[in-house]
Amino acid sequence: MNTAQDPQGIARVTTVREPPGKGRVKPPTFDGTSSWPNYLKQFKAAATANGWSGTDCATALILSLRGNAVDVLETIPIEEQANFEQIVKRLETRYGQKHLEDVYFTMLKNRAQKPGESLQELEADISRLVRLSNPDSPESFMERIAVRYFIEAIHDAETQQALRLARPKTLADTLSQALDFEAAKRASKRDGRVRALQPDLGTFNEKYLEAMIERLLDARKSNIKRRQPQCWNCGELGHVRSRCDRPVTQQEEKPVYKRSSQQGN
């Protein structure tokens, strides 16, 4: 920024734009090994912050290339090297992921939660695959796709059902509700284990009474068995002599005391 005076002596402020590479925000370099879509987003953010024109962007992008990425310049005619869109198009052809969008979409459809994988890890990968498979789609469309495939990828069927009933609008809301539901499930299981360990006095008393009744019934059956009549004919239990089916045996008569005729005289 410079200050000058016009012929009338009035001070005027003029702004001088700094050349590419000397702006307020310096764009990162690109060597072809990192993600080109992500790099382009960073570069455009720096260009916007610095207020660069199309020619400024072309110059800055050429100066940011490193390694094998510099070889792309050999495919660009000299008269087009000041055209930012042409440089981006050539770099997109070599390092872009347009040809991989169908591959990423197939991976997205087949994505499932892995054993031991947290919901946060699953959500991050779903978000990545959605953006790789739909890089030019509106944000609202990508949110709907991400919510759908995140729910389908969750392993727990109860969590899936709860999320479908809740109908969250964004992937962030879906993850938050899924975490809340999982926490509630863990708390319910923990409470159930505590209740299982606590003695149920009602059940204990009921079982104790049942055991006592069984013991009393067994004792009664034993007494009944001991009180069964015994046959004087065959000696077996359960019937008397008058109802015995076996032949009557000769029984020894019970001795009777007889008084002597000599006694008492």
Automatic annotation (TrEMBL):
UniProt keywords (A-Z) are: Metal-binding, Zinc, Zinc-finger
Q: List the Gene Ontology MF annotations in alphabetical order.
A: nucleic acid binding; zinc ion binding
Is NAD included in the keywords of this UniProt record? no
Tagged with keyword Amino-acid biosynthesis:
no
In terms of superkingdom, the source organism counts as Eukaryota
Q: Where is this region: Disordered?
A: 1-31, 245-265
Q: Where are the compositionally biased (Basic and acidic residues) regions?
A: 245-256
Q: Which InterPro entries match?
A: Znf_CCHC, Znf_CCHC_sf
Please report the stretch or stretches of sequence annotated as the CCHC-type domain.
231-244
Q: What is this protein called?
A: CCHC-type domain-containing protein
Organism taxonomic ancestry: Eukaryota, Metazoa, Ecdysozoa, Arthropoda, Hexapoda
